């Protein structure tokens, strides 16, 4: 099942193309729909699929107001290597403040000439989680969405390191086009992901290369904090970021970044 934010309300969506998808308004918000996911699933199964329409301008972030947004650094070996760092022994965790969230077809104003791309699988927490064993991690996940962990590299590295601020300018967390529930994915632990800038492929990897996989992240995070339905976890980016290139490359006004995850869809971010 695909759960979207259409016109600011939770909706079930059918189809793989946001330009021609069917939608059923659930008359509630994303977190409520996620808390009642089994009920929503049975409602969706009983519906006649409505005729498709173009949803691109109507889609917002699948979870527009999560209580918490976690993000993980250096969670792919090849990305840790390109930054010249050792892979960490525990997940390197920071937050993207929820005010940075935007939808799947957003225009984002670049605050400087040092903004970088990071395509990421984003976990949507399905059930309250505290002290969850790794073996039970999947049971606390509602589904996945596509995310970009946009990063202002100078702020990120300033004052020692302040990842959370450098990655939280307005629009720095585009997500979408919808949340796909785990049962709709052939293998939730192995999905192709990548991004392309004006058609040039910049990142291309698989989520099976995650150092700390999804159940492990749920276990590690919930060992410290309580996770709530609708919370997001940006799971880390694979190799190919701009700052690690020679010479470094960053996003420029007028460019369009397309981020893709197999079985979920694409998000398209345009920069001014
Ligand atoms: Zn990241």
Largest sheet: 11 strands, mixed
* Helix content percent band: 10-25%
Output the number of helix runs. 6
Enumerate the spans where pLDDT stays under 50 for 5 or more consecutive residues: none
Order of helices and strands: EEEHHEEHEEEEEEEHHEEEHEEE
Bound molecules: zinc ion
Strand content: 25-35%
Number of strands: 18
| CA gyration radius, whole angstroms | 17 Å
Cα separation of the termini: 34 Å
Report on this structure:
The chain is α+β, with helices and mostly antiparallel strands. It is 15% helix and 32% strand. It has 6 helices and 18 strands. The strands form 3 sheets. Strands 1, 2, 3, 4, 5, 6, 7, 10, 11, 13 and 16 form an 11-stranded mixed β-sheet that branches. β1 and β2 form a beta hairpin. The longest helix has 10 residues, at 37-46. The chain is globular, with a radius of gyration of 17 Å. The protein starts with a strand and ends with a strand. The structure holds zinc ion. Zinc ion is lined by residues 71, 118, 120, 149, 234, 236-237.
Q: What does the secondary structure layout of this molecule look like, with pairings?
A:
Layout: E1 2-6, E2 9-14, E3 22-25, H1 30-35, H2 37-46, E4 59-60, E5 69-73, H3 77-82, E6 92-95, E7 101-102, E8 107-108, E9 115-116, E10 119-125, E11 141-148, E12 151-152, H4 153-157, H5 163-166, E13 173-181, E14 192-197, E15 200-206, H6 214-222, E16 232-234, E17 256-261, E18 265-271
The structure holds zinc ion.
């Amino acid at each position: 099942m695909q759960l979207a934010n259409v016109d600011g309300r939770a909706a079930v969506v059918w189809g793989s193309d946001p330009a021609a998808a069917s939608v059923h308004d659930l008359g509630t918000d994303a977190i409520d729909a996620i808390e009642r996911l089994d009920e929503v699933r049975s409602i969706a199964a009983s519906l006649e699929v409505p005729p498709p329409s173009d949803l691109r301008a109507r889609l917002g972030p699948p979870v527009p107001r999560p209580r918490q947004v976690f993000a993980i650094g250096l969670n792919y070996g090849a990305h840790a290597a390109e930054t010249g760092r050792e892979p960490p022994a525990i997940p390197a965790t920071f937050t993207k403040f929820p005010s940075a969230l935007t939808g799947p077809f957003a225009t984002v104003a670049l605050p400087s000439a040092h903004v970088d791309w990071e395509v990421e699988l984003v976990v949507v927490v399905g059930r309250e989680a505290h002290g969850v064993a790794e073996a039970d991690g999947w049971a606390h996940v509602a589904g996945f969405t596509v995310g970009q962990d946009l990063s202002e590299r100078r702020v990120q590295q300033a004052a020692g390191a302040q990842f959370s601020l450098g990655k939280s300018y307005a629009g720095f967390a585009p997500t979408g086009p919808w949340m796909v529930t785990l049962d709709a994915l052939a293998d939730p632990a192995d999905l192709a992901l990548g991004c392309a800038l004006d058609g040039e492929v910049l990142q291309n990897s698989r989520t099976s290369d995650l150092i700390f996989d999804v159940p492990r992240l749920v276990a590690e995070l919930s060992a410290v904090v309580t996770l709530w339905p609708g919370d997001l976890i940006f799971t880390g980016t694979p190799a190919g970021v701009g700052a690690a290139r020679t010479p470094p490359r960053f996003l420029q006004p007028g460019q369009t970044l397309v981020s893709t995850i197999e079985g979920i869809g694409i998000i398209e971010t345009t920069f001014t």
